[in-house]
Amino acid sequence: MSKKFEKVFISMFLCFFIASCTNQSLQQQSLYDALGQYEGITNITHQLILVIAQDERVKHRYKDANMQRFKKGLSDYICVAVAGPCEYTGDTMQMVHAGHNYTNTEFNAIVDDLILAMEQLGIPVATQNRLLAKLAPTYKDVVYQ
Question: Are the C-beta atoms of 74 and 117 separated by less than 8 Å?
């Protein structure tokens, strides 16, 4: 009888454990909230600008850029990409990058810079990966346009 009770107890424990794991995944924080909402997104964009300014691989690409406009546009774009309550009114990514002929190496450098900026701000890796997954499809609109 003791073995039967033990099996029932273990089965119940596993059911509760699995149910709690499922419940946690269903209640996963929105990416917008995980990034700190719009303020957090603008902090990431600001930090990215600081990192780019030190990156010899790509900083020349931003030499004549209006960084305030860049910061606002990228922040709004990210906000929309992560289902935040924002409106992006800028041009499409394809139009923004048309004629610049960005290379794979430059695209990857910017991704590296974004990761570094998020690390510097203490953004958890899982949240970083969620954001990168949302932004990855823009590759086709940026490289060699």
Answer: no
The Cα–Cα gap between 66 and 62 comes to 8
Q: Among all chains, which residue has been given the structure tokens 């039967």?
A: 4
Number of helices and strands in the chain (H, E) = 8, 0
Confidence (pLDDT) at 3: 60
Q: Do 145 and 97 meet the contact criterion of CB atoms below 8 Å apart? A: yes
Is the pLDDT at 72 greater than 50? The verdict is yes
Structural domains in the chain, CATH included, are 31-142 (1.10.490.10)
- Distance separating alpha carbons of residues 17 and 120, to the nearest angstrom: 34
Read off the pTM: 0.79
